[in-house]
Amino acid sequence: MELRSGPRLRSLPTPGFPDGDEPDRISALPDEMLLQILARLRCARAAAHTSGLSRRWRGLWRHLRELSFRDMPADAIDAALDQVAGQALTFLEVDIPEEHRVLEHARVSALLLAAARLAPADLVFSLWGYAYDKDGDIPIEIPSFERTTSLKLDVMDHVLIPPAGAVEFPLLEKLSVVCCRINTAELVHRCPRLRVFEIEVFPSQDVALNRIKVHSPTIEELVVKVDDVQLDSLDIMAPVLKRFSLRVNMAKDFTVSFSAPMVENIRWDCLCEDENVGFGEKWRLCYLKLVLKENVGVLRMSISFSNFVTIFFVELDLRHVADFYLFSLLDILIHLKGWNWMLPDRSFSQEIAQLPAFSVLELDLQSKDHCIGALVSHLLGICSTIRRLKVDIGQYVHTECSPNCPCDQPQNWRNEIISLTALEEVELIGFDGTENDVDLLKLLFRCAPLKSMTVVLAPDSSLPTDQDCEEIYSMFEANPHVKCSVYRSPCKG
Questions:
Q1: Strand segments (E) across 35-180
Q2: Are 387 and 415 in contact (CB under 8 A)?
Q3: Distance of CA 429 to the CA centre of its chain
Q4: Is the pLDDT of residue 387 over 80?
Q5: Considering only CA atoms, which of 360, 212, 221 is closest in space to residue 289?
Q6: pTM (2 d.p.)
Q7: Rounded to an integer, what distance in angstroms lies between the CA atom of residue 392 and that of residue 2?
Q8: Which residue among 69, 105, 219, 454 is buried most deeply as judged by most CB within 10 Å?
Q9: What's the half-sphere exposure (Cβ side, CA atoms, 13 Å) at 323?
Q10: What is the pLDDT of residues 242-263, one digit of tens each?
């Protein structure tokens, strides 16, 4: 990084030297060259320490155009900013570490105003704090940075608000914000030239405001991260957006509106901790990831077979044995029915409908001992335009499958006709070759114009029965245009 000095300074005459002493050739250099030397220290505090070398160096750091204040308490940085001689800095960094946590919101505001006074073209402002009192979060107003083109505000545990009135950031092109809450819609509206926007939100006292809204005609790159708190809604309208990254924990009623017709690259990570998205009584979404790159969209979904009722009774029996006689089994079931625990709050269809387009579906099913046919058939009906399907049946989560287990409901999936006119490639991993697995193969061959079918047998499964083998090979022979392969997965020990 090339660092430039400010306005040309008057050079002091080189002091005389006693006989026998070598002249101080470095101090004799012009001020502009001395400032270049100080700039390469990459630290304003280290540059200020050179004042002890001689009068020639004293206060010279104050004229640097690029200043970095790191690992210093707020009082020291505030005093140093007051000493800076010029304005219109090229670069300014203020980094106050956690051990110097700034608790008072007034102090944070004062530091921001001091930085704004220097009118940096590029500002990095980072500190830790906790601005909260009995009345709730105390907002900190962002000053007007009229000359700034790149701004990074990393104010952990603080709440930010845009400048009062209709003040804009007229030249701002790149903005990165880390805080516990901010009105993204209003902030973006104040940035008419914004091209890159990164927002990272941490837990807020006001859960009702956990919403992200970004409507911008200029943003080309957008990053949204919401950590340790559930996001209620995401609303994106960006006609020239090309790159988008999302990492969130979905709230119970999470909603998405996404409009970005020119987007080329997407990374969409959503965690579903409540497991309230699913199919039937038991299948529940754990997380989904959508990746779009080079015009190929891949949706990965991790789905588990929930055993909430079993776990509930085990915990009840172990923790409340002394009080168990107070409840009848009927009372407990009526209570659970009141929770409506058997049905998900949202369906897979509702969740997938909110996503950008994709052509590859990858399913990670934690369901070794259960029938997956009904679930896969249901998802194929939703994702009927995919070109490639991959199903990976987890081998390390064992849950008992009873004769009347809801995993195989509805059973009419075996006779369904699903229009999968684009599906050409299928890969099944962890395949046991059971009757249910064979029925799934029949469904796929019947409904899709396949070109490739790859089956990887589970490492600890017994070989399919003779009858199942005959059916599988008959299907392969009946579809000579499909390249069929069967492998046995190596055992892992």
A1: 66-70, 91-95, 122-128, 132-133, 136-137, 139-141, 150-156, 159-161, 174-179
A2: no
A3: 28
A4: yes
A5: 360
A6: 0.80
A7: 52
A8: 219
A9: 5
A10: 999 999 998 888 899 999 999 9
Cβ-contact 450, 426 below 8 angstroms: yes
Q: Which two tokens stand for residue 205?
A: 């006292």
* CA quadruple 462, 468, 472, 478: dihedral, nearest 10: 170
Compute the Cα dihedral for 429, 434, 439, 442 and give only its sign.
Answer: positive
How far is Cα 246 from Cα 388, in angstroms, rounded to an integer? Answer: 24
Q: Provide the 10 A C-beta neighbour count for residue 361.
A: 24
357's tokens: 């387009």
Instruction: Report the DSSP pairing between strands 221-237 and 360-366.
Output: unpaired
Check if the beta carbon of residue 266 is closer than 8 Å to that of residue 242: no
Q: Given the structure tokens 């530091």, which residue do they identify? A: 111
* Residue 273 DSSP SS3: coil
Helix, strand, or coil (residue 302): strand
Q: Helix crossing, 435-447 with 466-478: angle to 10°?
A: 10
Report the C-alpha gap between 220 and 212 in whole angstroms: 17
CA 265 to chain centre: 14
Q: Map residue 151 onto helix, strand or coil.
A: strand
* Cα dihedral 120, 122, 128, 129 sign: positive
* 370 compared with 116, residue with greater pLDDT: 116
Q: Is there a contact between 441 and 406 (Cβ–Cβ < 8 Å)? A: no
Beta bridge partners of 429: 392, 456
Long-range pairs of 230-238 with CB within 8 A, sequence gap ≥ 24: 230/254, 230/273, 230/274, 232/208, 233/257, 234/258, 235/211, 236/212, 236/260, 238/214
User: Which regions of 101-242 does DSSP assign to beta strands (E)?
Assistant: 122-128, 132-133, 136-137, 139-141, 150-156, 159-161, 174-179, 196-201, 211-215, 221-237
